[in-house]
Please model this.
Amino acid sequence: MGTVFSFDVRGGEPGAVRAALHEAVAGLHRVDERFSTYRADSEVSRLARGELTVAQCDPEVAEVLALGAEAERVSEGWFSLRYQGRLDPTGVVKGWAAERAARLVAAAGASGVSVNGGGDVQLLGAPGADRPWRVGVSDPLRPGALAAVVSAAGTAELAVATSGTAERGAHIVDPRTGRAAVTDLVAVTVVAPRLVWADCWATAAFAMGSREGLAWLESLPDVEALLITAGDEVRCTAGLGGRLG
Model:
């Protein structure tokens, strides 16, 4: 998927956890082969060219497309499954794949699992007794510094996803124009139980801009967010403070 995935796994029977970890990593490679828009022979590329139908693809393709359609509906079109008029579900795939990998390892008996896919993180359980998972949010305007630290204290699952221009430049598209989104934002970090949605909502809110994006994120259940503008203004949802620490 063009990025680095890392796993931090705590507890569980070593043999079972190790086997699940190997299965999770193999699954990530299969996802890349199946969904990559850079591979001419991937199922998604062939689907986009009309060489396959959804029914002829692996069931995972239909699952991801359904998630993307739901993200489009909830965001009123600010999240899109298309890029330059062509099917492109990559905005869904990474978060979905990382979350699925984390749940696979947790199901094998691990007491704490953290899966980081290119800076977007799914957390399950805890790293130790009375020790919650904590995720540092990079400051997009100050390389090497943190804008905030998110804590998973008090919850069994939490995800943190960031969309912005600091790492990959202006890669987020305004679905209304098909061109790079022009907003006052440099980063949007979303905190939610599931990474698949945190990732989608961060992307959609970035395309909206700080005013509309913040209002929309406030309307979503179980979602908190931190938005940073190019003018170094920090805006956040009302309940974000309860997740910092």
Observations:
- The chain has a mean pLDDT of 93.
